[in-house]
Design a protein that fits this description.
The protein is mainly α. It is 55% helix and 2% strand.
Length: 260
């Protein structure tokens, strides 16, 4: 209990001292961490101080004759102050004060123009005209002009899927040559493997391969190259006739069947 009273007395002493310093004009250093301050009014005071500093720096950065290094330093300082302001606004919300984050206005320059920036870093005043900055935003604008999914889908046609690739007949001829070459290689490998298996089988029996033994041959049917190849099992004529007959039987039974 005594410890709580001591803490309360210390906080009261700090508050009274801060009031005296404010009245006497003594400049107080802003806390490094906003989370260390537990008084809403004090957080509001530090936030107002940051806003005044931001406004002062934005006015100063409008002067393009300051030099590149000075302009870059001012722009970095403004961005640092803006991030610090967010920390104080977040602490004010945690302590039950006003929610500045949800009602924050758009970040603008001193002339009312929206600040240009990417990924949380903004450029103000003369910083917009620095070497490399203008080119950066020109590239960013070009990247934003990318087509969306609907526009890309409108460009898809038959040529996209390759339906017109064989209109000149060259592709079909090239595919036939490649197919013939691959078929010959596969057939040659099959013949050699079959002969090797046959020799191994005779050798395991302690016999020599008979001289009148014919070499393995490949049956190519009637020699026609363009033969239809079914990739699914097709029913024969007898199977179709059988299915038709069974269907007619079922229809007749269903027609003349009497329920008892």
């Amino acid at each position: 209990m005594a410890r709580n009273q001591e803490k309360a007395q210390a906080m009261l002493n700090r508050f009274i001292q801060a009031k005296k310093d404010a009245v006497m004009g003594v400049e107080q250093k802003r806390p490094f961490l906003a989370s260390e301050v537990e008084d809403v009014n004090e957080c509001e005071r530090w936030r107002s101080q940051i806003i005044r500093e931001v406004s002062k720096n934005i006015t100063a950065i409008q002067n393009g004759s300051l030099g590149e290094h000075k302009i870059r330093d001012l722009n970095d300082t403004i961005n640092k102050l803006l991030r610090e302001k967010k920390h104080w606004e977040r602490q004010i919300k945690i302590l039950g004060g006003r929610d500045y984050l949800s009602t924050a206005p758009k970040i603008t320059d001193s002339d009312g123009r929206g600040a240009m920036g990417t990924e949380g870093y903004y450029y103000f005043g003369a910083a917009r005209e620095l070497p490399g900055v203008r080119e950066l935003f020109d590239r960013t604008g070009q990247a934003d002009n990318k087509k969306n999914r609907y526009e890309l889908h409108k460009l898809v046609d038959a040529d996209y899927y390759g339906y017109g690739d064989d209109d000149d007949g060259k592709l079909i001829a090239a595919e036939r040559r490649a197919e013939k070459r691959l078929r010959e290689e596969v057939e040659r490998d099959w013949v050699e493997n079959t002969k090797a298996q046959k020799e191994a089988r005779y050798k395991s029996l302690g016999m020599e391969v008979p001289e009148d033994e014919e070499d393995p041959q490949i049956d190519r049917g009637d020699g026609e190259e363009d033969v239809f190849k079914a990739h699914v099992p097709l029913p024969s004529t007898a199977d179709i006739e059988k299915l038709v007959l069974e269907k007619k039987k079922r229809e007749l039974l269903a027609k003349y069947k009497t329920s008892k």
